[in-house]
Each structure stands twice: as structure tokens, then as C-alpha cells.
Amino acid sequence: MAKSRLMLRGAAYWRERLHLCLTRERERFTLPYHHHDFVEIHWVAEGSGYHYIGEDRLTVARGDLFIVPVGTPHVYRPASEAPKDELIVYNCLFEANLAMELAAAYPEWPIAMEGLEGNERPYFRFRDTRGEAGALIERMHKEYQAKLPGYEAILHGQFIQLLVMLHRLKLRASGEAEAASPLADVYGYMEDNFGGRMALRKLAALVPVSVSHFQRLFKRETGQAVTGYVQSLRIRKSCELLAGTTLSVAEISRRVGYADTKFFTALFRRKIGVSPREYRRREAVAARPPRSPS
Predict the structure, then answer these.
(1) CA 227 to chain centroid
(2) More confident residue, 53 or 169
């Protein structure tokens, strides 16, 4: 791809007290190959396509995570312009200095900051197999759009959490992670199959241990029985669907694993404090842009 001539500057995105920006983009063929004077974290949320970055052309799909340092040229492209090939990418833009200041305060994870000025590596790529980083980025985007009082403080806290997650992914990818959880594959399986049947025998085989030992191990590590953990996971996924789609409550109930909509509604109310419909209404109100002063 031709050498980048377009420079995107952070000054166009920053707010007075927040040099951090969250966007959700449907990638097209209109944005040219470009570079920028800030750092970006990308999460591929939907679809598949290509990421032209540095000298590479990478096939990407949901769950791909990138750190793109200052000065690295790149652009995303869907596989085609057809609706079936839609490619949705969330972007977290921030000043490199912001991350460096946080790294100075938290020296136990300096690896997450390495190469952000573009002097060492053109990019970092990870797979968000458990969906944790993606879920956090979606929450950050929602917080950024709502702009409720105190949102800057919440975003800074979430940003620190995201950098720690990336640090752990780097350690895992390099084989340096210490004492990885024996339940790592179980958590990943649950994230990928939350709408299906969670048979204890199947989950225990992922460790692998006996069912009774698995139950003790799971309770010790999570503080919850498997049933309670799965219920919380399904309700979290249903919140994402209520806020991000127009699916009916009955359809969402089915997708997260509950054929009985009444049971789902009662469980949702017990976990969240309001009904699914009320939760959707509140999220819609919170997501509306503030009115301009008259």
C-alpha cells in the first residue's frame, strides 16, 4: 500500500480535561492509509477483513486486539463493500504521555508501555480469547458517549484497567505469565458458549480434573458456585444485547440460554434491580447526546 501521507492529530479529538477518545467505526474504503501523533488500541468487534499496518497485511476477525504506536501507518478494510462483510472496530485513542505517566505510577507493568512512541515495534497484536478487553472497551465507549458527571474519572480508571489487561496479554503471549489460572480455558469456554448448556463434566474436562475437584477449585478461585457464575455471565451478556441491539426481550432471553422468558426476567430483576425493558430504556436515555444550550 502507498506510503502514508495523512497525519491524524490528537488535538482534533481531545477534550479540555481528557486526552482520551473512544470511537466505534464501521470500516469502509474511504479512509486512506494514515498515521497519527497519538497511540491507538483497536478491538475488532464484528465481522472480518484486513488490517494494513506497517509493512504487513493481516486478516482480522472479532477478538483481535492491536496497540498501534505513534507514527505507525495503517488502515482497516472490510473484505468487500457488501453488508455481509461489515467490519466494526472500536478505537481507544490516547496521548502517549498519558500512558507514560500512569506507567510511572504503576511500575509493575511497564511492559504495557514499551514501544508506544514507535521506536521499537510497529505494532502489537493479541487475541482477546476471553472477551474481557472487548467488554471493557465497549463499556468505555458507552461512558465516553454518555458524558455523565464524573465520566472523565471513570474513563481514566477503566483505561488503567485496560492497560493492565494488555500487559497480561503480552506476558501470556511471550510465555512469561506467572502461575496462569488452571481455569483459564474454562473462562474462555464460558465466554464463547454462554448461551449453551454448561455441563460440569465438560467444564471439568477442560482443566482436566474430576467434577468434585473442579467445583471446589472453581468456588475457591471465583467465590461462586458454577451456577451463580454462569447466571451472572448471562445477565452481563443480556445487558450488552439490551443496550446494543433492538432484539426482543424474549429473543435475548433465548440467546443467553433461558427458554423461559419469565424466569429470565425475574433473574434479571434480581441481579440488576430493574426489568430488562426498564434497563433498556435507561441505557437509551443515558446514551442520548446532551442538549445544546439554547
Answers:
(1) 24
(2) 53
CA distance 13 to 25: 15
- Give the amino acid at 129: T
Residue 37's closest CA among 13, 67, 7, 16?
7
Q: Which residues contact 229 (CB under 8 A, 6 or more apart)?
A: 190, 218, 222
- Residue 48 and residue 59 in contact, taking contact as beta carbons nearer than 8 Å: yes
Provide mean pLDDT across the span 184-211.
Answer: 91
Cβ contact 88:45 at 8 Å: yes
Determine whether 254 is exposed, middle or buried from the number of CB atoms within 10 Å of its CB (0-12, 13-18, 19+). middle
Architecture (CATH level 2) of domain 184-287: Orthogonal Bundle (1.10)
Q: Which CATH number fits domain 11-174: 2.60.120.10, 2.60.120.280, 2.40.50.140, 3.40.630.40?
A: 2.60.120.280
Rounded distance, CA 253 to CA 199, Å? 19
235 close to 267: Cβ distance less than 8 angstroms: yes
The model scores a pTM over 0.70? no
Query: Kind and range of the H or E element at 48?
Result: strand 48-53
pLDDT of residue 282: 87
pLDDT beyond 90 at 124: no
What number is the average pLDDT over the span 204-215? 92
Residue that is written with C-alpha cell 457464575 in the block: 229
Tell whether the model's pLDDT for residue 179 goes beyond 90: no
Edge to edge, the sheet with strand 74-78 lists 6-8, 34-36, 74-78, 48-53, 56-61
Write out pLDDT tens, residues 91-116. Answer: 999 998 887 776 666 655 554 555 45
Distance CA 125, CA 65 (A): 6
